[in-house]
Amino acid sequence: MAMNFGAEASDETNHSVFVNFNQDSSSLAIGTRTGYKLYALSSTDKLDLLHEDGSEDIRIVERLFSSSLLAIVSLSSPRKLKVCHFKKKTEICNNSYANTILAVKLNRQRLIVCLEESIYIHNIRDMKLLHTIKDMPSNPNGLCALSPNSDNCLFAYPAANTSGEVNVFDAQNLQNKVLITAHDNPLAAIAFDSNGTKIATASEKVGTVIRVFNVLDGQSLYEFRRGYARCVTIYSLSFSSDSLFLCASSNTETVHIFKLEDLNEVKPSEEPQGLLGYMKAVGTKVLTQSASYWTPMADIMNQWRSFATARLPMSGSRNVCAVANIQRVPRVLIASADGYLYIYDLNTNEGGDCTLIKQHRLDETLGNADPSATANIQGSVSYAAVVRGFEPNTTTVSSTTASSAAALQPVSAGAVAETPPRTESGGDDYDGDFPPMTYSPGF
């Protein structure tokens, strides 16, 4: 769900952009060399600027649901993680790591920091270091995923850098859960659903096949194919909140939305008759096989095409996608390195082509960036993209609710949790998701 448009190590002095949805796609964060901004996704007509801070250059900014908790990594100090309460303008704690921080993931139980060859798991309530995963295969892109569901507090990362194995780790009980052989080629994208019971994967080189697995036992559930004509690079995967839809974006102009039908509810009378019906029935059976036992028959039968598609005005720009409910209506959201947020409708009954209903200019500085500027998506390889504008049906963000942030200062224990609840324009409790925090000077 989160994607980072960050600069390559050799080019961090250029204008870099980080774009990221929070865990339930109710808000959007943008980080640049001049600071960060948070927007509420409560309306298709406008974006409400909730907060902005121009005190430092941003490499990563992650928000915990609709709370005031932020995890921030700057370009100038890429090995330092800062956790702060942005409404009180207070710093809770900070910690330094041996190497560059490539990704930060949060849910209500855990805060996880991913380096190239190690992973650090913290208790988000007091920031205590609980566990370290070391000597793992090199993960230069910081590819990883954390379940947003605290009851299924699972974390996934590549188990190999030469094949598509994904290791699912129980971040609550601090033990390995299951190893899934998802693809032959290295992983390009992974994502949990909102319940933390399914995981979607895509691989490098052959980015046309997307698979969904049961994380409890590693059994394969679905295989989708986004096309046959060409191999693509998958940039992001994202489930809808009800786990019924899976969105996939890539380096092409087409964003695919797949529907995860309940196989147990398919009635025999609904199946095609004759040879086609028999072949589909065989294909359905093999869906329950482990990924390590994919057979040629399974490969043929389970390559279901997309339920719906959304078409971007251009291809090649890094992007991150999401399926979100805005005012209780399902929408497809794509935040792109071209500096825009695209909002499409989604017909959940008929599918088909999604209509572009609104296009928002995310930040004026994106459109004014130098053409050589680089963009970065979290969990993906760095990518140099031309940051450009596309004007039709475009609006700029509203800044009426934003306030300039002062420099962050340390805060004593308990001060964060005492912050009075604030309401975003979407009606969500600002601090309702915010867990008790303890200030730890040594963190």
UniProtKB/TrEMBL annotation:
One of its GO terms (cellular component) is phagophore assembly site. Pfam families: PROPPIN. Residues 409-443 are annotated as: Disordered. Its main location: membrane. It comes from the Eukaryota. Keywords: Autophagy, Lipid-binding, Membrane, Repeat, WD repeat. SMART domains: WD40. SUPFAM superfamilies: WD40 repeat-like. GO terms for biological process: protein localization to phagophore assembly site; response to stress. Belongs to the WD repeat PROPPIN family. This is WD repeat domain phosphoinositide-interacting protein 2. It comes from Oppiella nova.
